[in-house]
Design a protein that fits this description.
The structure is a homodimer of 478-residue chains. Chain A is α/β, with parallel strands linked by helices. Chain A has 15 helices and 17 strands. Chain A starts with 7 loop residues before the first helix and ends with a helix. Chains A and B meet through helix 5, helix 7, helix 8, helix 11 and helix 12 of A and helix 5, helix 7, helix 8, helix 11 and helix 12 of B. Chains A, B: Keywords: Aminotransferase, DNA-binding, Pyridoxal phosphate, Transcription, Transcription regulation, Transferase.
């Protein structure tokens, strides 16, 4: 049998890959045209094309229409990964609220670089198409969405969510779904349905401050579990805590977590679900980024492996289509009645018209088309951000390598306090999310979360450079 | 000084009023033309017109364009008022949830008469104008409402709410307002901000089941206070409970309550606020019907008299414009930070685009125009409903006389159980809200709530007649 790399196209691909990995070719460099490849290597056009296809599938290069092939990836972007996190076992409710408000109250201001933003920038969202969808919805939805929607939510939307769930090999019907006013609202109903004051919820660490605040306001203790920047929550730590009977409920971001960017491997998901079933502990699964994968297919969810109805799978279109529409959902498994009651008693129903617009968007090929573009842009941005961080940030800086989403986690040298760095960078109208707000403990002071879901341009690169310089200055103070 | 009734126009008006009150003239009867009045009484056209103006201002007659004057009111519609309610002092959490679901799960079905509906019917709402507003909003709102709104809510909308509050002699600025996803959602944030499990909230009785369910799901005890169908909550009972230190927070529907239809007189509002200030107990004021008054001006709110910031004034456009838009608000007084935190932690923000549409609607004269029509229709319907109940329902039936809103409370003879009546009427596709769901105690079994905010037509009259006949049949069983 002929070894694969002996094929002509593989030989060519290997050469180019080496040049990319060695840094000879850098992100954005134009590659030789197909004709040049044919001439230089003495191969057919088909073979040249196969070589480039192969490199594209490895996300090393990209095609630009009417322009040719370009390098997407380069050696220098491969930053070291942050260490697995290892928070203290006991959560201590330090006061991070003021920091959050400080960062997010500045966010709306004109001219500010919104690296702290929790969603992709407007420029990456299909606003014109959504507006058209609104017009259609006023015609197609009975009463133009002026009347109360059902508590369970728009049926057309729920049928689409069920249809899309096939991509992660889940198989639930529309009547197992309850729509909500965005994903946080879904988490809120689940938490209120499953917990009482004094209970403990286990989460990854670091974790989205929204989830910490929700637990805090409900009087729920948070157990922050050590987590790996690649594979997410540490299952051994989870098992130990379960054995000790410490956990009432879990709340994990299974795919492209916020802020680490980690994605639980399928095997881990399966194992986590099995563990939780063993201890009869429900899992609220926050899967709001799953559709924004950079690999070949959508990662599965924990819900995929749920046989006991213990997983409450939550999602939304806030990170892919329209945060301001407030359209999310939950598939609460065996807790459906409890969650439905929460929605009914706290809200009656969700906004009717925006649900209908999203239903229409999901029904056609528009969502798939949009996602394809969005993934492509976000992955490109991630590589550009990684390169900029490698080029401009202090030596020793580490960054996560998310395989999806729009959020990355950066660990600066220990001496730098990112809250102080924030105070300085905001004077230059550069905002970001300091690491300290992603925990209730005194940790992650030298970390920060960046949103790479912005429109890449020269100003953005200049601002990242400036941020890196400010960080270097902080370092010199010691 | 000449006595007013000596004026010629007053003499004529008195004669016609007598004919109406004696039942000689009945609802819907055509009145003599102005020319006939001039001839019969030997008066000028102006005098005849003044007489009809006077009767119109007393809501006894109405003009129909190109048709003439008609009787709006008749003796037989003056039903006895239900007694002041007097619930037991201790709330007992009976299980009314199944009843509520039974009634409201049927509500959406085609061909059903939705007398149980909690909002005016779609036909009374300005759907076409709101749709136009949506188109405008996609153009005027930055990012077409795709991005997250501020936690506090749409500023343009908050400025309009502040402007409209002048009508009830309140004087707060837009930055004291937080928008919410409808009024129940505002109540939910307030309750979560002010109470903890085991606390007690005082409400009128009977009271909207939504408010009971909210308290129940939060683990808050409900103290149901005796209430008068005209003037609302009994202030003596309130004072006694306050003295006993039984109340942590109050939750009143001050204007055109649900389901009684009562309206606290201004003097009662003032006194209630003074009492609560004395005992330092906050009042969550649900004022979602205040704009739908049938009298000369909008009733004031408790907030009007609030000097300590203890009143959290809640409202929405769910009963006047668009329940499905989920646009409401709260002016939380001194609890602003706490309420803002609840919204931020449970929901992030409200749907952006529907807030903008409502802001546009309130900014122009459209809202005032719409309200004028809505009030006129609702008041007319109330009179027609009252007449139909007097004509068709069992002898001894009593009904409330709301001075605004779209909800009336009907008390049937004691022997009738309205849950059983419901089972029978729903087979004829006639739904209504049985009295039992408006309390946590075993009370109001012979009562029901009707929504008169429907399109009046012959079918509706036939259905009310049928409902009356079914009630009479129930009575005969004993």
């Amino acid at each position: 049998m002929k070894v694969k790399s002996d094929f002509a196209y593989m030989r060519i691909a290997k050469v180019i890959e080496q040049q990319i990995l060695s840094g000879t070719l850098r992100t954005g460099d134009k590659l030789p045209s197909l004709r040049t490849i044919c001439r230089e290597y003495g191969v057919s056009q088909n073979t040249a094309l196969s070589a480039y296809y192969h490199l594209e599938s490895k996300m090393l290069i990209e095609t630009r229409p009417q322009s040719g092939y370009y390098v997407r990836y380069s050696k220098t972007t491969i930053l070291s990964l942050p260490q697995i996190t290892n928070p203290d076992a006991s959560a201590n409710y330090a006061h991070s609220e003021l920091m959050v408000r400080k960062v997010y109250d500045n966010l709306g201001e004109d001219g500010h670089l919104p690296l702290a933003l929790g969603t992709p920038a407007n420029e990456l969202l299909p606003i014109a198409k959504l507006n058209k969808g609104l017009m259609v919805a006023t015609r197609e939805l009975k009463g133009s969405g002026v009347a109360y929607d059902k508590t369970e939510g728009n049926e057309r939307l729920r049928r689409q969510i069920a249809r899309w769930s096939f991509a992660m090999e889940c198989n639930f019907s529309h009547d197992e779904i309850i729509t909500t006013s965005g994903c946080l609202n879904a988490l809120s109903y689940c938490m209120m349905a499953l917990t009482k004051r004094g209970d403990t919820v286990a989460m990854e660490s670091p974790i989205s401050f929204g989830m910490l605040q929700l637990a805090q306001v409900l009087g729920i203790k948070v157990l922050e579990l050590p987590s790996d920047p690649q594979s997410g929550v540490d299952l051994n730590a989870l098992e130990d805590a379960l054995k000790d009977g410490k956990i009432n409920v879990c709340l994990f971001i299974s795919n492209f977590s916020n802020p680490l960017g980690s994605c639980m491997p399928d095997e881990n998901k399966k194992q986590a679900v099995r563990l939780l079933a063993e201890y009869n502990v429900p899992l609220i699964e926050n899967d709001l980024n799953g559709d924004v994968y950079f690999g070949q297919q959508r990662p599965k969810s924990c819900k995929t492996y749920d046989e006991c109805g213990l997983v409450l799978w939550c999602g939304s279109v806030s990170k892919t289509l329209a945060p301001g529409y407030r359209v999310g959902w939950v598939v609460p498994g065996k807790f459906k009645d409890e969650v439905r009651r929460m929605k009914s008693y706290h809200n009656i129903s969700s906004t009717a018209i925006t649900q209908e617009v999203i239903a229409g968007f999901l029904e056609t090929g528009r969502y798939e088309n949009h996602l394809r573009k969005l993934r492509h842009t976000l992955h490109g941005n991630l590589l550009k951000f990684s390169r900029a961080i490698a080029d401009y940030f202090p030596e020793g800086t580490m960054a996560s390598r998310p395989q999806g989403g729009f959020i990355m986690w950066v660990e600066l040298p220990r001496a730098i306090d990112t809250m102080e760095l924030y105070e300085k960078s905001i004077r230059h109208k550069i905002g970001f999310a300091p690491g300290r707000i992603f925990t209730l403990q005194n940790r992650y002071e030298n970390c920060l979360r960046l949103n790479y879901g912005l429109l890449w341009n020269e100003k953005l690169e200049r601002d990242l450079k400036l941020l890196g310089e400010l960080a270097k200055k902080e370092l010199k103070r010691f």
